[in-house]
Specification:
4-stranded mixed beta sheet, 11 strands, 1 helix, alpha+beta, 4-stranded antiparallel beta sheet
Length: about 160
């Protein structure tokens, strides 16, 4: 009888230690994932009183698409990965600015500040139209969160 009690006590202690290690390991993984994306976070309230964490989207690649029409229409397709299952592209706040022959696209993500999320990468793809009507012939650069590519107009993009 005494041996059975010792064995049960030992099993209980082993289970307790294992559970503690597992929980502390999960906490570290969550902290590491949060630290990975801890670049200039903005926390903003939304209309439903939910606070969101806003960050720059991590863009892996862009593709410039020129539609076969005249005047020409151009869009940029950006692909990348979101850091977790709660983060989404903030499509309502995509900012496109042009300075000379360079288009700068600011692509942001948002996630509820108090959400508990799966820690798995989620791929995204977003298509962003560029205002190109009236541009002169020339080479133009598109920059989406640090990923760049160029396109060229061989004629002015205006209807005579």
């Amino acid at each position: 009888m005494l041996n059975t009690q010792k064995i049960l006590a030992l099993l209980f202690i082993c289970t307790l230690v294992t559970a503690t290690l597992l929980v502390s390991g999960c906490t570290e993984a969550v902290n590491d994932a949060e630290d990975m994306n801890n670049e200039e976070d903005d926390t903003i309230p939304d209309g439903d009183d939910t606070e969101y964490i806003v960050r720059d989207a991590i863009v892996d690649d862009i593709q410039i698409i020129i539609m076969e029409s005249f005047p020409l229409q151009v869009s940029v397709n950006a692909v990348g990965n979101l850091p977790d299952g709660c983060t989404v592209i903030d499509e309502e706040n995509i900012k496109v600015t042009r300075d000379g022959n360079t288009f700068d696209v600011a692509l942001k993500t948002k996630r509820p500040a108090d959400a508990i999320c799966t820690q798995a990468l989620v791929s995204f793809e977003v298509n962003i139209p560029l205002e190109v009507y009236g541009l002169e012939a020339g080479v133009y650069t598109v920059n989406v969160n640090g990923v760049t590519d160029t396109f060229e107009f061989t004629v002015d993009n205006v209807i005579d």
